[in-house]
Amino acid sequence: MSSPHKFEYASTTSEFCSFFNSPSSRGRVSPMSDELTHRSPWGLTIDTAFEDCDSHDDGCTFSSSSTLCAALGLSTPNSPRSPTSPSFKSFTPDSPRYGLNGFGNGFGNVFGNGTRCSAETHPAGENMPKSSVEHIETDRKGPTVFVWDLDETLIIFQTLLDGRYVELFDGFKDTHKATLLGRRWETLILEVCDDYFFYNHVEEYNHSNVNSLQEYDDGADLSDFKFDDILKPPLNADNLRNIRYLHRYISQLYEQGLDTLLTPEQDKEWHDLYEATDSFTDGWLSAGREKLEELQKVNEQKLQEIKISSDGSVKSSSAPNSYNFLVTSGTLIPSLVKCMLFKLSPYFNASNIYSSREVGKLQCCRWIRDRFSHSEKLPKFCSIGDGPDEREAARVLAWPFVNISIDPDAPGQLPLLSYKTVKVHIKAVYRDNADISKEQQHIRI
């Protein structure tokens, strides 16, 4: 394990829209964006060879002479790794993009030189055919499974980097301070990933969940396991087992928390950065934790109500945070680290965090739904986020969707969100027998 060192950050805002370059032409990247994805919500590959970008007059290409792509916050090939850039490699044993006989970039011509991009004018899933809405039972007695988005929903990070957050305040927020905070978070996240989670050894290989490779786990003791060089070609079952070991090890660190890892100096800098960001965003970060706590208490009360069976005996029940899920289009390991650094880990189990980068948010939501398919009391589901992907996934699954907006003039700001508002959305989809009886009685009258 590399020795931890003091966090440093760069204050430069000069970044080029270069993430479509081939892997060989750029430095290491660290995908953590919850905004950019090259998969539709239906799990279909989207052609990333977009038409010319209309959001920048001079165009934005991979060349060193391109216009600064401030709306994306992406890195130049020679700049430090950027958490806003997408992963180049991800594999599963049956992936059509990845052979089992060696290491390649796996994407063919998907990331071709000369492609142009704009996250604003070409969102993931745009112009894709809509999927039909799936059937759902509306009379459900269990707790509510809350499926959250991360960036610009529970936390403010991405828009600090790309300048969108400050733009919404029409000059009332300091642009330089916002960028500086974003850069400090970016560097902090990457250093924690590398120093403690060995992300630099597996960053090109993303999986949707820490349990995605569970079938390769033989339960070996990891006390003396060396993670420094766990991937060696050719890619085979041994490599997949090693990555599964790493995911198990990371899950253990996640449960322990950062307080057991960071030095006193690092711990102070982390907390100072959190407080500075929370203040700059008018309490958005602390509001996220408050909303999670509030909704978790609602589930806790519901679990207490169904804990006593009809014969009066006490039945086993899940912890309230078992009903909190996170689906992010950022890659898995950095997303876990972000949850820890933004102090969200008490509300999300490591196994309840999903990366949708390769499969789309709809598929992740289906996996979450299926985890409760055999529950004695079927739960309700509610999706909360700010993007089109989670909105479309909720539409297809017939889940209520609560929209969050960072716009100070919009009604959907997270600090203003109440359980009463969430309940209205839930009751619009799920009706219990009492509601139906009232309606029938009203009709008879």
UniProtKB/TrEMBL annotation:
<keyword id="KW-0460">Magnesium</keyword>
<keyword id="KW-0479">Metal-binding</keyword>
<dbReference type="InterPro" id="IPR006545">
    <property type="entry name" value="EYA_dom"/>
</dbReference>
<dbReference type="InterPro" id="IPR038102">
    <property type="entry name" value="EYA_dom_sf"/>
</dbReference>
<feature type="binding site">
    <location>
        <position position="386"/>
    </location>
    <ligand>
        <name>Mg(2+)</name>
    </ligand>
</feature>
<dbReference type="GO" id="GO:0005634">
    <property type="term" value="C:nucleus"/>
</dbReference>
<dbReference type="GO" id="GO:0045739">
    <property type="term" value="P:positive regulation of DNA repair"/>
</dbReference>
<dbReference type="GO" id="GO:0004725">
    <property type="term" value="F:protein tyrosine phosphatase activity"/>
</dbReference>
<comment type="similarity">
    <text>Belongs to the HAD-like hydrolase superfamily. EYA family.</text>
</comment>
<feature type="active site" description="Nucleophile">
    <location>
        <position position="149"/>
    </location>
</feature>
<keyword id="KW-0378">Hydrolase</keyword>
<dbReference type="InterPro" id="IPR028472">
    <property type="entry name" value="EYA"/>
</dbReference>
<feature type="binding site">
    <location>
        <position position="149"/>
    </location>
    <ligand>
        <name>Mg(2+)</name>
    </ligand>
</feature>
<keyword id="KW-0904">Protein phosphatase</keyword>
<dbReference type="GO" id="GO:0030154">
    <property type="term" value="P:cell differentiation"/>
</dbReference>
<feature type="active site" description="Proton donor">
    <location>
        <position position="151"/>
    </location>
</feature>
<dbReference type="GO" id="GO:0046872">
    <property type="term" value="F:metal ion binding"/>
</dbReference>
<feature type="binding site">
    <location>
        <position position="151"/>
    </location>
    <ligand>
        <name>Mg(2+)</name>
    </ligand>
</feature>
<protein>
    <recommendedName>
        <fullName>protein-tyrosine-phosphatase</fullName>
        <ecNumber>3.1.3.48</ecNumber>
    </recommendedName>
</protein>
